[in-house]
Amino acid sequence: MGPQLSVVMPVYNEQAAIGAVLEKWNRELSRLGIDFRIDVYNDGSKDNTLVVLNSIAQKRPRIVVHDKRNSGHGPTILQGYQQNSDCEWVFQTDSDDEMQPEHFEKLWKKREHHDFLLGHRLGQNQPLPRRIISLISRLTVWGLFGRGVLDVNVPYRLMRTEKLKPIFHALPQRTFAPNVIISGWVARKKLRILEVPVPHSARKTGTVSLQKWSLFKAAMRSFMQTLAFRWSGEMP
User: Fold this and answer.
1) What domains lie within the chain, and their CATH numbers?
2) Most buried of 109, 161, 166, 188, CB within 10 angstroms?
């Protein structure tokens, strides 16, 4: 068995910020007295992110670095879910420092009566293309699975693995946006869902992997995969 909580964090070209981000998460989870491990997945970074990660891991035994070839954000977090489903809880957050660790306590304290707890992004100032894509993702999930989740792709989610393990392992490894499908599956299964407002701030460092028309291509890919999975007969 793993620890009570695994924090799955994908990282790509975040050498300037990742050290401070991990220190904040390590400090906050330690303060809460949680039996935790931070599983950091370096998704083929081209800068010195891996060097920084290995340096931190030498000082912080609860931070575990997984170095992998680049496969993208979605397949990376899905790999994290699958590899850490022996923990009681899995929490996913990104490494960009846009949603702070001090708000995690809001979710953690309410976990006993819920299976799927999300930090709904508060104060998010997205450009128009991203707002359109977020809306398309939400309407897709609502139409295919039901209206259980508002912020369907939020990267601040606490999941009870006993309940979520079937969907973690049913999704194909190359799934582009597994969080979207997982949100829909949870709604369809009528698991106990809670969304808590969590402040969101703009990225200060690092690499934004999707820009302009790539966003729309990504949205279409996510839509097609979600549609195909919903009607494939493989949904647990």
Assistant:
1) 5-230 (3.90.550.10)
2) 161
